């Protein structure tokens, strides 16, 4: 095997990058828009069709980390690794549907989930949701720019910082003018390219290394756990934590809810089903490259798992295919980076300015200026932090916990009329504090304390199972699933869950937020009229006099 990765010349890489971003920019200029169209900039006036919507949701869900993490999962856990990474991620897209349907019914003209929560509870709950989205989207942007820098530095003589700068400027160039519409429009083209290239590259690597026969002959190199498709180790270390984390990302991430509010109402269901299938197929396929490397006994270059896919492509494929792979990764990270910019601009435009500063009397032109300034600022911040090549694992864990802590309060607020603003706020705060104590091992997980935390985690497991069942089969089945899942995890997990810190902490965040939210809500005599949400959330392009006055609505 080659000890070094193949490298393109500086001119070749610059041509690939400028060709990709130049072509994407030209595509975005074909989008027609009206001056001062704030709603179009944020959610394309809720007119996105099935093809565009499904492609955009899939492309956004497949980010740069999907490539490396899927391959790492296959390399680490063997046969079941790619399935755990791809299947659970795909299933989460499908699981968003029933809750997304409810969000859309309550607030058909919303631009962010935060607007719905503001109409339901007020500013504090909304700003918690907005803060988590801002932090998450900035970190996601940084991750994708970091991946671009790493790819450029590995496959060319250009520096890590140069790759970051070009990717940041390229994504900003085509997103700045048309916002979300540019993100969706270019996502479609990027996904078509990703699918076409993946269909070529994955089989090409397989047959270049000798074909399925060679891979099957080398399955003996796998350990018993790696060869087991139902591996307990893979499920507890990869599948279960990923399942729990992705549910949190699905509910808390503005990039997903933005597409939910943008898709034409008649196309919501087929959009989610199509995105589920396409995501699973692509990501499981990418994970198979890691499994191929494992069967052949390949050692990641410099011990870095992120080099695994470039290493396999570089070793087994000619330069033309390596060029296709380069575009594949750049396209995937760009599709998510532009979604992060669109999400951040929508949050600042609607959640911060529209609801809390302008008080529902926003000037659309001023909103557009705020949105574009947000994109520029976020890109600069992303480039700066990405250039440091920081270890972002702690921040990603923190954001995942914050989103995990808000899942039950958000969903309950949209279905249960007794949830209060205090219940929402304190549920998230307490859950986040407990999560940090567990995840960062600030208290010893021994004795009675460890058992107590494991029981809270069992409640969290019940919440995850109950919510998923409730979404598709209703309240009665959801309650039954809650008790069954909670009891099973308590029976199995007490005494052993403490060994799996990431899973324990994530489930604990779900359990604590649920118990606090329910406890405080039951002490209140308030009953909320869900019809008020539709009145309080409207389009921003309408004249101010056509918008409902929030104070008047609240008074009613």
UniProtKB/TrEMBL annotation:
<keyword id="KW-0739">Sodium transport</keyword>
<dbReference type="InterPro" id="IPR001734">
    <property type="entry name" value="Na/solute_symporter"/>
</dbReference>
<dbReference type="InterPro" id="IPR050277">
    <property type="entry name" value="Sodium:Solute_Symporter"/>
</dbReference>
<keyword id="KW-0769">Symport</keyword>
<keyword id="KW-1003">Cell membrane</keyword>
<feature type="transmembrane region" description="Helical">
    <location>
        <begin position="396"/>
        <end position="416"/>
    </location>
</feature>
<keyword id="KW-0813">Transport</keyword>
<feature type="transmembrane region" description="Helical">
    <location>
        <begin position="83"/>
        <end position="100"/>
    </location>
</feature>
<feature type="transmembrane region" description="Helical">
    <location>
        <begin position="477"/>
        <end position="494"/>
    </location>
</feature>
<protein>
    <submittedName>
        <fullName>Na+/proline symporter</fullName>
    </submittedName>
</protein>
<feature type="transmembrane region" description="Helical">
    <location>
        <begin position="6"/>
        <end position="27"/>
    </location>
</feature>
<keyword id="KW-0406">Ion transport</keyword>
<feature type="transmembrane region" description="Helical">
    <location>
        <begin position="448"/>
        <end position="470"/>
    </location>
</feature>
<comment type="similarity">
    <text>Belongs to the sodium:solute symporter (SSF) (TC 2.A.21) family.</text>
</comment>
<dbReference type="Pfam" id="PF00474">
    <property type="entry name" value="SSF"/>
</dbReference>
<feature type="transmembrane region" description="Helical">
    <location>
        <begin position="423"/>
        <end position="442"/>
    </location>
</feature>
<feature type="transmembrane region" description="Helical">
    <location>
        <begin position="272"/>
        <end position="296"/>
    </location>
</feature>
<keyword id="KW-0472">Membrane</keyword>
<dbReference type="GO" id="GO:0015293">
    <property type="term" value="F:symporter activity"/>
</dbReference>
<keyword id="KW-0812">Transmembrane</keyword>
<feature type="transmembrane region" description="Helical">
    <location>
        <begin position="369"/>
        <end position="390"/>
    </location>
</feature>
<dbReference type="InterPro" id="IPR038377">
    <property type="entry name" value="Na/Glc_symporter_sf"/>
</dbReference>
<feature type="transmembrane region" description="Helical">
    <location>
        <begin position="316"/>
        <end position="334"/>
    </location>
</feature>
<feature type="transmembrane region" description="Helical">
    <location>
        <begin position="189"/>
        <end position="214"/>
    </location>
</feature>
<feature type="transmembrane region" description="Helical">
    <location>
        <begin position="158"/>
        <end position="177"/>
    </location>
</feature>
<keyword id="KW-1133">Transmembrane helix</keyword>
<feature type="transmembrane region" description="Helical">
    <location>
        <begin position="48"/>
        <end position="71"/>
    </location>
</feature>
<keyword id="KW-0915">Sodium</keyword>
<feature type="transmembrane region" description="Helical">
    <location>
        <begin position="500"/>
        <end position="522"/>
    </location>
</feature>
<feature type="transmembrane region" description="Helical">
    <location>
        <begin position="127"/>
        <end position="152"/>
    </location>
</feature>
<dbReference type="GO" id="GO:0006814">
    <property type="term" value="P:sodium ion transport"/>
</dbReference>
<dbReference type="GO" id="GO:0005886">
    <property type="term" value="C:plasma membrane"/>
</dbReference>
């Amino acid at each position: 095997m080659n000890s070094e990765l193949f490298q393109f010349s500086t001119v070749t890489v610059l041509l690939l990058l400028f060709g990709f971003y130049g072509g994407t920019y030209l595509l975005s200029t074909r989008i027609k828009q009206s001056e001062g169209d704030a709603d179009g900039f944020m959610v394309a006036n809720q007119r996105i069709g099935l093809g565009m919507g499904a492609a955009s949701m899939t492309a956004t869900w497949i980010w740069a980390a999907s490539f490396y993490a899927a391959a790492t999962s296959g390399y680490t856990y063997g046969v079941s690794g790619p399935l755990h990474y791809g299947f659970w991620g795909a299933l989460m897209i499908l699981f968003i549907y029933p809750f997304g349907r409810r969000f859309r019914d309550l607030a058909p003209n919303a631009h962010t989930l935060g607007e719905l929560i503001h109409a339901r509870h007020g500013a504090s709950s909304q700003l918690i949701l907005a803060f988590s989205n801002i932090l998450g989207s900035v970190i996601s942007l940084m991750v994708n720019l970091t991946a671009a820098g790493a790819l450029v530095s590995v496959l060319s003589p250009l520096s890590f910082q140069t790759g970051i700068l070009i990717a940041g400027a390229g994504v900003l160039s085509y997103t700045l003018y048309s916002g979300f519409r540019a993100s969706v429009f270019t996502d479609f083209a990027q996904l078509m390219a990703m699918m076409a290239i993946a269909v070529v590259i994955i089989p090409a690597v397989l047959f270049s290394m000798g074909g399925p026969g060679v891979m099957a002959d080398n399955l003996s190199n796998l350990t018993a756990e790696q060869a087991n498709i139902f591996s307990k180790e893979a499920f507890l270390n990869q599948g279960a934590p990923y399942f729990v984390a992705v549910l949190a990302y699905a509910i808390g991430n503005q990039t997903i809810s933005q597409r939910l509010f943008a898709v034409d109402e008649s196309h919501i269901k087929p959009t989610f089903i199509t995105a589920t299938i396409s995501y699973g197929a692509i990501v499981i396929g990418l994970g198979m490259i890691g499994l191929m490397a494992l069967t052949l006994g390949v050692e990641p270059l410099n011990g870095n798992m992120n080099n695994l896919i470039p290493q396999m492509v570089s070793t087994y494929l000619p330069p033309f295919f390596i060029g296709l792979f380069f575009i594949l990764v750049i396209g995937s990270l760009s599709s998510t980076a532009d979604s992060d910019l669109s999400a951040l601009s929508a949050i600042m435009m609607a959640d911060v300015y529209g609801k809390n500063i302008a008080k529902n009397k926003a000037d659309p032109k001023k909103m557009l200026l705020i949105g574009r300034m947000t994109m520029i600022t976020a890109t600069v911040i992303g480039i700066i932090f990405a250039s440091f090549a920081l270890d972002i694992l702690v921040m990603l864990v923190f954001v995942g916990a914050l989103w995990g802590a808000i899942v039950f309060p958000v969903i309950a607020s949209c279905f249960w009329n007794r949830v209060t603003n205090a219940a929402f706020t304190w549920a998230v705060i307490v859950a986040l504090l407990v999560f940090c104590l567990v995840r960062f091992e600030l208290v010893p997980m021994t004795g009675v304390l460890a058992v107590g935390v494991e029981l809270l985690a069992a409640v969290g497991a019940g919440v995850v199972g109950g919510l998923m069942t409730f979404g598709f089969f209703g309240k009665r089945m959801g309650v039954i699933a809650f008790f069954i899942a909670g009891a099973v995890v308590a029976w199995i997990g007490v005494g052993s869950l403490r060994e799996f810190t990431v899973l324990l902490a994530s489930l604990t965040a779900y359990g604590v937020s649920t118990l606090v939210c329910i406890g405080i809500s039951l002490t209140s005599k308030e009953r909320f009229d869900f019809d008020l949400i539709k009145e309080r959330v409207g389009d921003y392009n309408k004249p101010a006099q056509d918008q409902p006055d929030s104070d008047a609505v609240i008074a009613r």
